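User: Can you fold this complex?
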Amino acid sequence: MKRLFLTPSTSARERWCEAFETVLVADHGVQLSSADSAAYSSLWLDLSTVDEARSLTLLKSALQAARPVVAMSATPDESQAFSLIKAGAHGYCHVEAAPEQLREIALVVEHGGLWMPPSLMQRFLALSTRVAVKRAPEWQQTEQLTERELMVGERVGQGASNREIAADLGVSERTVKAHLTAIFDKLGVRDRVQLALTMNNIEVPPQRAVQ
Amino acid sequence: MKRLFLTPSTSARERWCEAFETVLVADHGVQLSSADSAAYSSLWLDLSTVDEARSLTLLKSALQAARPVVAMSATPDESQAFSLIKAGAHGYCHVEAAPEQLREIALVVEHGGLWMPPSLMQRFLALSTRVAVKRAPEWQQTEQLTERELMVGERVGQGASNREIAADLGVSERTVKAHLTAIFDKLGVRDRVQLALTMNNIEVPPQRAVQ
DNA sequence: CCTCCCCCTGCCCAAAAGTACAATGTGCCG
DNA sequence: CGGCACATTGTACTTTTGGGCAGGGGGAGG
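Assistant: Here's the predicted assembly.
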């Protein structure tokens, strides 16, 4: 199986060749067709000289090949790792990773796994602990909101006030309130705080009625 | 490499033997010593007849062997998957998974990867990344709250109203407000919505000043 | 003893949030 | 065309929130 490395430079080519028997190296600009994708089993993106926005763009186009993509960074960073993983990368590692490690990562991602450095993985799992993991039913709740309601809900989920939302959407504050009332009803929440949590997939524990 | 399967029954043993050359099967009750752990490369937990609480207990003891653990369920379920993964499992699959798939999973977890069914993986990533990824600064923030302030903050993070919090803590509503004012100041948030998000490790994007 | 910090609270006020009742306009569907 | 869902807004009212001003009590430490 061949591995395709996309990089602006070829400085690390040596290490890659050491890791895998067959390596293809191409420039970032290369156009990937689905025909090509049969030719390799995984795709490796060198993002060491690329800014965040462009990283995501490159990743998106790389993902179209329907092969697992491993993002490689020169300055591994939690925030970058998570945003790339979230965007669809199957792996995240240092661009200077040793051949042996590259082989491990290839094994993992080419068999449907997710790979990142152990410390990051740990942190990644720890971070998700506060997120509600229950029921698919309420997942649809967000779906039952109208387009406009969804916009309002999302802004509340970011901590915006009614006035700010109104300005954002170019409507009156009264309209925002109207949407909110509808949302509260549909999602079964009481106020904007509970809505904000719900919009972030956080379980809202039932509050004891007082008075 | 051997794989150790922990199961109350041996009904699936056949499939396991088909998947791997060497398979050890033992009861859930078996005690794992670190000496044993050298004998196998991964540990597979059959949780098909086990309730949630016991699942976590079994997983915890299995993890002590310092080998990757794959949890297998008869009724794969998002909630169960996530709680097991968070508790330290490296893989989650159906107990009836085909031999070929078992081999894939073994490859992944034994090389440091995380494996779960693709649909679950997608959902898992979608959920996880709503969470803020930089906490070092704000983590201390939570620490800089006094005991009482922390209690109030946590309740706000669960969507409680001032009145409810007051009742919970057995103080007046005015006191709750006083604590809140102090919290807003310390954490640099504007209102209870932003506080609720912050308490759940969710990044509060700066809002454009309007007016 | 004095000071600092934390906890608690009352009165009062302003802003924000949330609701009720009502109305207008638009586009889609039978 | 009439019904219906959606978006929009106004007036007015109630509730909740946030905070200024002022004060009391307690514990730790100089």
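Chain A touches chain B through 58 residues (CB under 8 Å). The domain at 2-128 of chain A is CATH 3.40.50.2300 (Rossmann fold).
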